[in-house]
Automatic annotation (TrEMBL):
Domain of life (superkingdom): Eukaryota
Keywords: Carbohydrate metabolism, NADP
InterPro entries: DenD, Epimerase_deHydtase, NAD(P)-bd_dom_sf
Molecular function GO terms recorded: oxidoreductase activity
Protein name: D-erythronate dehydrogenase
Keyword Ion transport on entry: no
Organism: Penicillium diatomitis
Entry keyword NADP: yes
Residue ranges occupied by any NAD-dependent epimerase/dehydratase domain in the UniProt entry: 3-212
């Protein structure tokens, strides 16, 4: 059995590759691809013989054709590559090419080379624009009207994933991820980068900038839960989805204030003091357009896992520093 992950040089892809290698039998191979050759995740080094690292620019149809071939079918394809929210707001054409055109081409290439293949597409809460204060969104009570190009591109692909699945071209699942926090590695181009920066950077002894107000509420999920749920997404029976292949993944509603309190509780006053408040209107505008509260009954019915508390999340993150 063979699994493909695109965008696997990125944070989630690296963690997912390690998680899949740890949980799948020795006969399963995982191909990870990115625009630069993706690294072997450090935590997966003992499985390196089951991992194939491929450099491919997915905006090139030729490179996609070489990666996805009828003579080497995948059991599941995880589509994770992309230009994140601030990046695709800043460079419209790049976002369209990578998030929309390349992904559409991949879906078509899968349709003609390995019809019926399972596809897990990582969508985002950014498919929703702002909801009235206090409103709790689920998949059917609020129309997804994105307020960013990133969210629009995600929603278009979700629509294709549902239609291609209806037609039997693929067996798709679009999982809308909350903001993954606390994310290891470097700060990113996502408008939500600060949500991880304000915890991660102080643990490295570095300053972090908070570009939004402390009363801002966010819909987040810990990396551990995200990876468990991405792995689970493969095993949900197709019948469980009904007419739509989209599902809002479980997460946690948390205010920046609560995050900073949890940072102080686990990391101490010195680390808390490394977070500097510096308002940025452009970031704040994107972040405030996201809604912080979801009801994820649909995901729970499909067997997806609930997230851990903010304290537990930071404890898990901090455990790599001792
Ligand atoms: N991390 C989050 O908080 C979050 C939240 C919601 C949704 N998501 C979605 O989850 C997925 C993974 O997120 P992430 O945080 O790991 O993102 P990331 O930015 O770390 O990784 C994305 C990867 O896509 C690659 N990529 C960009 N252009 C490419 C191209 N032309 N060809 C091949 N690869 C290309 C990048 O090099 C990068 O490694 C994305 O689809 C993202 O939209 C993430
Ligand atoms: C969404 O919530 C409404 C009530 O507000 C309910 O009728 C509906 O079944 C829910 N849908 C899902 C998918 O949970």
């Amino acid at each position: 059995m063979s699994i493909l992950i695109t965008g696997a040089g990125g944070y989630v892809g690296q963690e997912l590759a390690a998680g899949l290698l740890a949980l799948t039998p020795a006969s399963t191979t995982v191909t990870i691809t990115d625009v630069n050759e993706p690294a072997i995740p450090a935590s997966a080094s003992q499985h390196a013989d089951r991992l194939k690292c491929v450099k491919a620019d997915l905006t090139s149809t030729k490179e996609v054709d070489e990666l996805i071939r009828a003579d080497s079918p995948f059991e599941t394809v995880y589509i994770l590559h992309g230009i994140m929210s601030s990046g695709s707001e800043a460079d419209f054409e790049l976002g369209m090419r990578v998030n929309l055109d390349a992904t559409r081409y991949i879906l078509d290439r899968l349709r003609v080379t390995m019809s019926g293949v399972k596809v897990v597409f990582t969508s985002s809460l950014a498919v929703y624009g702002p909801a009235p204060s206090g409103f709790i969104i689920n998949e059917t009570n609020f129309p997804p009207v994105p307020s960013s190009s990133y969210g629009s591109q995600k929603l278009i692909i979700e629509t294709l994933v549902t239609d291609y699945s209806r037609r039997g071209f693929i067996d798709g699942r679009s999982v809308r991820l909350p903001t993954v926090t606390v994310r290891a590695g470097a700060p990113t181009q996502a408008a939500s980068s600060f949500a991880s920066d304000i915890i991660r950077e102080p643990f490295h002894g570095r300053k972090a900038v908070l570009p939004v107000g402390k009363d801002t509420e966010l819909w987040i999920c810990s990396p551990g839960t995200i990876i468990k749920n991405l792995i689970h997404a493969r095993t949900v029976p197709r019948e469980a989805f009904g007419e739509s292949r989209s599902v809002n993944l479980p997460g946690l509603k948390v205010s920046v204030h609560q995050m900073l309190q949890a940072l102080q509780e686990i990391g101490g006053q010195e680390r808390r003091a490394l977070v500097e408040e510096k308002y940025d209107a452009a970031t704040d505008k994107i972040v405030q357009s996201w809604t912080p509260q979801f009801s994820t009954d649909r995901a729970f019915q499909m067997g997806f896992h609930a997230d851990v508390s903010m304290l537990e999340n930071i404890k898990q993150f901090a455990s790599s520093f001792v």
